[in-house]
Amino acid sequence: MKNMKMGLLVASILVLAACNGQQVEFDYVRLQNNSSGFVTDDGDTAIAIGLKKGSTLKADMDAFLSTLTPSYWSELMTDMVALRVDNKATYVTRADYSDVTGGVLKVGMECAYEPFNWTQKNDSNGAQPIANISGKYANGYDVQIAAQVASALHMKLEIYAYEWDALLPAVNSGAITAIIAGMSPTEERLQEIDFSANYYQSNLVVITRKGNKLLNCNSLQEIDQADVKIAAQPGTFHLDALKAQTKNLTVVENLNDFTAMRIALEAGSIDGYIAEEPTALTICK
Fold this sequence. Notes:
By secondary structure, the protein is an alpha/beta fold. The chain is built from ten helices and 16 strands. It has helices at residues 42-45, 58-65, 70-85, 141-152, 167-173, 187-190, 220-223, 237-245, 258-267, 277-282, and strands at residues 9-11, 17-19, 22-24, 26-31, 46-51, 104-109, 118-120, 128-129, 137-139, 156-161, 178-179, 194-201, 204-209, 229-231, 250-252, 272-276.
């Protein structure tokens, strides 16, 4: 991540979650891209639009995305986090669908990775219908970026919900036009698909329970203990980095999404899981 400060910062966040009728509080450990945290590069921590190799849409998408500044990224992400933590928060989409002469932009995402994307029951706050799930709507940072991209390209937007591992095959098969799903343009993925310019830059955290000894750690090396269990989503660079840069802790890699990891953390079967920092902020009530 660009312009990162040195050191590992511990950010304490109190979160209330239901677990067997009890209240569970969550904190998170902020791991920076340096010697005390995960070693990553911009290809890992950047977020970009995934496209089929040779897509003719890339140039126009890049031209639009170049108009969105990091300060705008931060503003939009703040708005999306607010929608998840404050029931009084509202958002008005900036997309304009008065001209959709450019065809259909079919966008794939999990619809389950808040605040990048989530599922809701109505079209409030700029949410878009999920084309392959009747009566459900998607919203979040990815959805609003997708809406603005579609608007800039004069295209009709359609959102499709896919499992994470199915996104690359879907875009390569032509089932969807683009992946806008909090996906990083890693070297491995670049061998399979093209990516647009970045539309966000993030950093990794370890979400854990308040009071867990991990919050007293000052480096990834200190977290890397034999009695520690950390989960990461399969098919992500989160998991690759965790496996490559630790040797003592137990890596849990059979929890397929962030909902499953949070449930496991609430139950105490893991000590923490890897996520982007905005994800941690959404469980701050």
